[in-house]
From TrEMBL:
Record-annotated GH10 domain positions: 1-312
Residues of the full protein shown: 35 to 347 of 472
Domain of life: Bacteria
Catalysed reaction, written as an equation: Endohydrolysis of (1->4)-beta-D-xylosidic linkages in xylans
Species per Swiss-Prot/TrEMBL record: Nocardiopsis algeriensis
A GO term for molecular function: endo-1,4-beta-xylanase activity
Name by which UniProt lists this protein: Beta-xylanase
The keyword Phosphoprotein belongs to this UniProt entry's keyword annotation: no
Length: 313
């Protein structure tokens, strides 16, 4: 049958997958990533702790490997992520930096990373998970030291390093209209009004079977109406394991709903699934007893969710 990426191309949609560079040694894993998807996101190897574990010591091996893979397979690369409170080395989080010092640290990290991949990585999650559930700003070393202005500063730095890159703010639990997505909406509106280089928002979409927010399409639409691109950046849809046939059918409907919400809105530019196949998903480690969240099963076979994506495209 027609690979997902060919169907997505007809819609001008980026159909992405999160890839762990070291798993590219697994032939079945690499084959699915190459043949089904026209975009890839580094699952971990572009995060701060991977790229700059000590100040001034940059490590590109994992990140380069996936960029090379993408180029060999004619895929876009969606860069994830530059400024995030998690997977952040303690030399940053506990460094005791003053405001000007922390801005210097951010500048070194952002300009070096974005600059290295200028022309090769065209999209960046510049800031990840900046919000609390109530829509206020999350406490982090960046917010504590620099206030909410750290977000505009990071976007300006990334834009300076690659004026052609499309710059995103990404978060979870912002798929439907709720207090948290209202906070993201207020921030996006305010950044645009100030002329800050923001081009899109990422809705992670780590969802639960049977619980796709009913306002997802309306939420995508309101960000698109600001002139922003919306990307579904990290979709997976988890359930209790072992998953019942019924749960897998519901999951297929849920994947279809997510794709239809994106396809219904001009300005929804892509959907990325957060992993190639269930054995490597982050879900069981983070949500014990949950899993089976991806379109390919433990044996790398397509699940009902895969066929639902296929049909939705
Ligand atoms: C996860 C990865 O999938 C795991 O391998 C890693 O151990 C932790 O991070 N939100 C994000 C992603 O923005 O970077 C996270 O990825 C999942 C939640």
């Amino acid at each position: 049958e027609t690979p997902l990426r060919d169907l997505a191309d007809r819609h001008g949609l980026r159909m992405g997958v999160a890839v762990s560079s070291h798993l590219l040694d697994n032939a079945r894993y690499a084959d699915i990533a190459a043949t089904q998807y026209n975009s890839v996101t580094h699952e971990n190897s572009l995060k701060w702790e991977s790229v700059q574990p000590q100040r001034g010591q940059f490590n590109w091996s994992g990140a380069d490997r996936l960029v090379d893979f993408a180029q060999a397979n004619g895929q876009d690369v969606y860069g994830h992520t530059l400024v995030w409170h998690s997977q952040l080395p303690s030399w940053v989080s506990n460094g005791g930096f003053s405001g000007p010092e922390l801005e210097q640290v951010m500048e070194e990290h952002i300009s070096t990373t974005v600059g290295r991949y200028r022309g090769d990585i065209d999209y960046w999650d510049v800031v990840n998970e900046a919000f609390n559930e109530d829509g206020s700003f999350r406490d982090s070393v960046f917010h504590r030291t620099l206030g909410e202005g750290y977000i505009a500063t990071a976007l300006e730095m990334a834009h300076e390093a690659d004026p052609n890159a499309r710059l995103f703010i990404n978060d979870y639990n912002v798929e439907g209209i709720n207090a948290k997505s209202d906070g993201l909406y207020r921030l996006a509106s305010s950044l645009l009004a100030q002329g800050v280089p923001l081009h899109g928002v990422g809705l992670q979409s780590h969802l639960i079977v049977g619980q796709v927010p009913s306002s997802m399409q309306a939420n995508i639409q309101r960000f698109a109406d600001l002139g922003l691109e919306v990307v579904i950046t990290e979709v997976d849809i988890r359930t209790s394991t072992p998953a019942s046939q019924q749960a897998l059918q519901q999951q297929a409907n849920d994947y279809r709903t997510v794709f239809e919400a994106c396809l219904a809105v001009d300005g929804c530019g892509g959907v990325t699934v957060w992993g190639v196949a269930d054995p490597h998903s982050w879900i069981p480690d983070t949500f014990p007893g949950q899993g089976a969240a991806l379109p390919y099963d433990d044996n790398y076979q397509p699940k009902p969710a895969y066929w639902a994506m296929h049909e939705a495209l």
